[in-house]
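Hey, quick one: can you model this chain's 3D structure?
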Amino acid sequence: MKPTDFSKTLTDFLSCYLPAEKGVSLHTVCSYKDSFILFLNFLLNKKGIQANDVTLKMITKEIIVEFLTWIQTERNCRVVTRNVRLAAIHSFFRYLQYSHPENMLEWQKILSIPFKKSEKGTINYLTLDGIKLLLAQPDQQTAKGRRDLALLALMYDCGARVQEIIDLTPVMIRLDTPATIKLKGKGGKTRIVPLMNEQIALLKLYMSENKLFEPYANRYPLFHNSRNEKLTRAGINFILSKYAKLAREKSATLIPDKLSCHSLRHSKAMHLLQAGVNLVYIRDILGHSSIQITEHYAKIDSRQKREAIEKAYTDVVPQNNPSWIDNEDLLSWLKSFVK
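Sure thing. Here's the predicted structure for all 339 residues.
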């Protein structure tokens, strides 16, 4: 079977251009790959076109717009997901402008498809009492419970993303003074985050129990499943959901109905902000690319807003009750008010 120009170009785009020339992370390549798998499924289910038969000439702006509509209407995806898929398509067709310039007009039409504006949801985070309740749920009498406590506490304490926790290895942990952890974030950027004494104690216990201090274990996953494989996103979400459910049974007000792993990251950011930590330090701990992203937490912190207002508040309300309150004849008072 002779490969089509679409199959060859897409292979070069995912295998060579993105990782080698553009230098994007493996996670971005996987996300783009998933977008094109979805696109090929759309072509098969809605247009009856097999993946082996797709050519570049078949792909038009109209087809892409129909695909994006299908994502939202039939797959019930949010605008954010629709925009993620469009970002992958835009990247591919920017690449095509240089590799296949003979169809430049059509590629530019596709690149003109705009991203949709989406409503920014409120940040979901736990109070300090909520975090304490959540971390009290793992059974520390079992090995799995001790692993889960170390994992969730570390995710909160460092404000780490899920993938950053998944990618951790023992060599990235320094437990000597000053204790630190190296996190590898988006775009391969690394940052060093200090560890607190309570977290150090949990990690020492967990790593000793699992022989992760041994030299041969330096590159093993820090957190692994029963098959000694690194945990997946779904696995970590399952762990969090299990303990969130237990905590919710004890106090539904402290644990919201929707709680994701990113909520722990948000919680850490809010608690640092409420403790008076400078936004620049919070930015560095979380690994944000700019201070503007971190400022979003300050905008939603109602407690700090209230405290700021209270500090600047001047009582301008009259303290004495108006005379008509003690006067049964309100009508007489109103008639004499302007005299």
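One thing worth noting: The chain has a mean pLDDT of 86.
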